[in-house]
Amino acid sequence: MRAAIATLLLSAALGGCGFRLAGSEHLPPVLAKPYLSVKDPYTDFAREFERELKSSGALLQLGRQDATATIEVTKDQIEQRTLAVSARNIPTDYELRYTVTFDVKGADADILPPQTITLSRDYSFEENELLAKEHEADILRASMARDLATMAMRILSRVK
Q: Which of 2, 20, 31, 118 has the fewest other C-beta atoms within 10 Å?
């Protein structure tokens, strides 16, 4: 019984001080029912961004006509470039660069001008560990997509 009361008091204290879980950004009312426009809904970022929007309480609309605003992702691009090569001209280091651009439009005006967010990560490559290194690159891409979606949500939470 005491444990239940202590848990209740702790949760009330945390709620009263403004504590909230990481990743649960509060969106302004204009983004309560957004339409999400993406070129490819199956990219890592598009899936993470949609998940973040839903977890923040947004009710995604199926059509623009029913939405309070349109969030348009105009760029969702991953680039990989070689940073270093061995003496045998085999790549040993790569850089992954993930760039996302989005804007928010209301019914009759732009709410948020285009915002571009870019993350880059380096990773080493060894020819004899090909499968492990490809898996590492996939994990990096997914992690970068999560980070970009979180950053985009922070930007959206500051919309007036």
A: 2
